[in-house]
Amino acid sequence: MARQAILAALDAAQSVLISSHARPDGDAIGSMLACGMMLEQMGKHIRLVLSDPVPLIYRWLPCAELIDRSEWIDRPHDLALLLECDSIERSRLRGLDAARVVNIDHHASGRPFAAINWIDPTASAVAEMVYELCLDAGVRVTADMATCLYTALLTDTGSFCYEGTGLHTLKLAAELVELGARPTRIAREVYFSNPLPKMVLLGAALSNLRVDGRLAWLTVTQNDMKRSGAAEEDCEGIVNYAIAIAGVEAAVLLRELPDGQVRLSLRSKGKANVAQVAEAFGGGGHARASGCTLPGPLDAAAASILMKLQALL
Amino acid sequence: MARQAILAALDAAQSVLISSHARPDGDAIGSMLACGMMLEQMGKHIRLVLSDPVPLIYRWLPCAELIDRSEWIDRPHDLALLLECDSIERSRLRGLDAARVVNIDHHASGRPFAAINWIDPTASAVAEMVYELCLDAGVRVTADMATCLYTALLTDTGSFCYEGTGLHTLKLAAELVELGARPTRIAREVYFSNPLPKMVLLGAALSNLRVDGRLAWLTVTQNDMKRSGAAEEDCEGIVNYAIAIAGVEAAVLLRELPDGQVRLSLRSKGKANVAQVAEAFGGGGHARASGCTLPGPLDAAAASILMKLQALL
What residues of chain B lie within 8 A of the CB of A202, using their CB? Predict the structure, then answer.
């Protein structure tokens, strides 16, 4: 039903804004770009906006240069597609009118905050939903679109490894390759083109790895950031090295921010729901991946979060 | 033709030995186990032998406990299936008779050293060839077999990222899931169940990461091994962090062995053929992944290999 409502709304719209969450990931970028190309085929005026820059590893994607960085909606639009957001705030865009927003999300934590809400937690990525939308709209999925969608699917499933990966995921991946996506080229750009500082930072973080029972944690200080020359986006994925340890059921990366606050990335591979913990500190996310920000210093933040996590396990 | 010859030879055989290379990887283990289950369905007496132990992350695979560790063939057999080997020596097994060996390999460096040789460099993994053999033999691919084959495919393609991954790879992955392989369960066992020392060792290796132009290298000393408590198999994959850096076209991990020699793992993502370099030092492999052993000390080995690689780039 939501899909039909979305298609009807798109039919009626002339100008469509497309956005996603702050600190965009591969699914945000890839799905936005594919949406944009779909709507261009449908003859719409489109605008692609994000509050943060496109991470380096996604800038080679077709049309990535069309994504504007802005926190303000300065031009009118008939409709806004907001991907992978559980609220308008998550986009960090000001000036969005909920009455004109279409919310497309695949997270179990998705909420119906918009005029039209399509939330499908069985989808491996929003890319899977965008692909279905293309089929419904009778839009031809070009090789460029397939490349964007495959990149989204690959990165959001952790190379087809995370929970939620299933037969439909692999079948879609195969279909996208048939349509022109090149899996090894995409993997090379996304996984084998890391900036050197990212690897140096990973080494520094791993030298601070601690494990206590089923809990593992890593820290990244401002000093680590400076010495490695790493950017904020280079911290992405570091916490996965802690959760990837045998016997560990919950993991956290504690990252000192320039203003002295501490950003936490939480992961779970057991029954622990780390979204609960993040929410208790004003953050959010999913049962197995969530985040929040605590006041510094690092040691105090570590003590608070580790106590909460120990209680959970 | 080779496939028909293999099936005819299997039909005529009563007892079949199955083996693969020393330091076995996921494709070696997964394909051996699936072969074993295929031959049991065909009513054969089978024996699974490897010269090295099954790495920890593959011990949960169905029937993995049936793989014997031995360097001697102490019992007679009618036929031996040797997977992923470019020679009998690669298996480090003594007592194998080439006249009874069937060589199944997907490497471009594969060589026809056996009585029957089936070398298909278009296959993403030997698992893909074993699957075809099952279909040809009319054997039902059980959920256990699909699990072993999926594990082999997943690990040998670096989660569907390495060169050689294509439509056929993803289609096969989907088929194996339809037959009962569970992608997230397999990924959890293989990628998210690392021993803690492996992560500590990775941190130590990354702290020794060096980049010079298009060349990157990492070192692991005996001191690193002792301090981290890591096992030899924990070094697997470390070199990939060096080749995954933007602009790097060739990478090497130099690992000090207990006897003072230095084991090298070479990777290329450009045009450089690192098999040539490995072969010049008495080793072998493929254009993009090879290995060899040099005399110590570490510094001297590093100087030799870096000079060779610089000349290549």
Answer: 203, 206, 241
Q: List, in sequence order, every residue forming a beta bridge with A215; answer none if it has no partner.
A: A212, A250
**Residues B168, B204 within the same domain:** no
> Residue B214 corresponds to which tokens in the numbers above?
């298009």
Place of tokens 């899977």: A128
Instruction: Please identify, among B138, B156, B191, the residue that sits at the C-terminal boundary of a domain.
Output: B191
Which residues have CB under 8 Å from B287's CB, separation 6+?
Answer: B108, B268, B273, B274, B275
- B123 Cα to chain A: minimum distance (Å): 15
Burial of A226 (0-12, 13-18, 19+ CB in 10 A): exposed
Which class for A182: exposed (0-12), middle (13-18), buried (19 or more C-beta within 10 A)?
Answer: middle
b/e per residue B157-195 (b: at least 16 CB within 10 A):
bbbbbbbbbbeebbbbbbbbbebebbbbebbbbbbbbbb
Residues B151 and B23 in one domain: yes
Instruction: Based on the fold, state whether residues A165 and A272 are members of the same structural domain.
Output: no
Give how far B102 is from chain A: nearest CA, Å: 31
Instruction: Give pLDDT tens digits for B56-71.
Output: 999 999 999 999 999 9
Average confidence (pLDDT) over B260-279: 92
CA angle B97, B30, B176 (to 5 degrees): 130
The pLDDT of residue B33 is 98
Looking at the partner chain, which of A161, A177, A205 has a beta carbon nearest the beta carbon of B159? A161
Residue A105 one-letter amino acid: D
Q: Whole domain around residue B106: which residue ranges?
A: 2-191
pLDDT over 80 (residue A131): yes
Q: Are B12 and B149 members of one domain?
A: yes
Cβ contacts (< 8 Å) between A206 and chain B: which residues?
A: 199-200, 202-203, 206
Give residue B109's pLDDT: 78
Task: Tell me if ipTM is over 0.85.
Answer: yes
* Domain tally, chain A: 2
Write the pLDDT tens digit of every residue in A190-223: 999 999 999 999 999 999 999 999 999 999 999 9
In angstroms, the CA B90 to CA B82 distance is: 10
What are the helix (H) ranges across chain A? 2-12, 26-41, 126-137, 143-156, 167-178, 183-191, 196-207, 222-228, 239-243, 274-280, 298-312
Chain B residue numbers with beta carbons less than 8 Å from the beta carbon of A160 are 154, 159-160, 173, 183, 187
Positive or negative torsion for Cα A128, A109, A55, B194: negative
Tell me how close the Cα of A194 comes to any Cα of chain B, in angstroms. Answer: 5
Cβ–Cβ gap B184/A202 under 8 Å: no
Mean model confidence pLDDT for chain B: 95
